[in-house]
Write a structure and sequence with these properties.
Elements lengths: L1 H8 L12 E2 L4 H4 L6 H9 L3 H8 L9 H8 L5 E7 L2 E7 L6 H12 L14 H16 L8 H12 L2 H9 L3 H5 L2 E4 L5 E4 L2 H11 L3 H20 L7 H25 L6 H13 L17 H10 L4 H7 L6 H4 L4 H16 L7 H25 L4
Parallel strand pairs: 1-2
Antiparallel strand pairs: 2-3, 4-5
Amino acid sequence: MGNDLREAEDPGKGGDEDVWDLHGGFSGKNRGWFANDPMDSVLGIMSQQPDTATEFLDPGADKKNDMLHYLVKDRDWELVDKNEFHGKASVVVGTEDKDSRTGLGLVIEAASTGQEPGAHYELGTHNPAQARVMYHTIDELNGAQQAEQMPENLREPMARALRDYVPDLHEILGKNNNLYNTQEGAWQDDEGLTRMSVFKDDLVPVLRGIGDDPKALGLLYQAQQQYGQDQLSALPDNAGAATRVAIKDTAAALGAYDGVRADIIFDERFKKQTWANDFNTAATTVPGYALQFTGAYTPAADAANRLVGVFSYEVTKDRLAEATLEATKENAEQFTAGQREVDNMVAMWAQSNGHDQDSTFTKDLIGTGQTKHEEGRDGALRRLRPDY
């Protein structure tokens, strides 16, 4: 069905890109029942069959399937025709409906995770086809200038989908894993696990685009935070270098989110206190289900879940204070809420292993993460604001 619809609408296949155009909007309570975009409607239905969705969108190892490229970059989504007067002349102008790309967001989520949209499941396991869908979605969004300026109905599904890739995001944003730094796309590690690598400079704009919806970014941040906590909590006291690496990677990852938050707060389009409140709510609300990552990446850590609930609330006031800052380079350096969360993670982990929170051992580990947080935050800000 999807291929047939494309042939009807894609000029590159002999179709008519205006074939579905109608006058008037078809979203909302009164008119949303009418499926004025057959392709987007079919994509939404397809999202309930994740394996079919993956097959439909997967470019393949040979990159011969261009359906994802077509839907993200080439397709004409302006199906609502409106009359505008230019002087005395009436001109028909195409615009997007408010529910445009709703089906696309859902089918990308299903295709890249192997799960129905919004489902609760153990995070972190994919096959190569699913990982290719996620990699190429990020790549296509950047290529279409829709990463940082992400269409509204893609934000929440992309946040949910990326939660399933948080183990990969942890490595990408940490920038300490040479395999992630030198490989791109879907690949398998020595244990046969499928991994997904993108360049940090391609991932950060996607996080920023999601951030136009504070609840969506907060949802993703919560998973990123918990994964970092799980990595640290799973380590014994004598883990040595592994402890420092876990701290550095988590600090750099949460630092990148602080850089994204700074860019959003410095954007005059937003009601900043409202945005910060909504982000805090999503980032600190304990879900009604266990948020767990597959044991292939890290053991589940019940203590981590409890500890996150203890200290996350302490930094909500800091985020609200940061929301009042003016857009200056000096003020960008004040976005350190993520670092304070890492400091608390380290202090609690050290205490659980018999070290005082003010011991030399603990202070040394806390200092280990602070430089990496700054690098992660400033690197994200430079990507989003070259003048910084």
